[in-house]
Design goal:
mainly alpha; about 75% helix; 2 helices
Amino acid sequence: MSLLHRVPDEPSDAELDAIEAEWPLIAAELDLLDAEISILNADDRGGPTVLDWRRLRRAEAQVTRVAVELASTATVRKAVA
């Protein structure tokens, strides 16, 4: 294999910084996924409870809040740069 096509074994510092900056959104999306899975598996418990639906709505709202915050932060960075 040519050295030109070699894939690095580890992410670069810039890639790690990007992941760290997006981590709050990643965590919020994982919480949302967990709430969705809980709703899907609720049939085993007799159906979703009021708390299951509340958890889902809160997780959806958190994803929205974090996404807006990240988008506004990115917009400010672009305007400053």
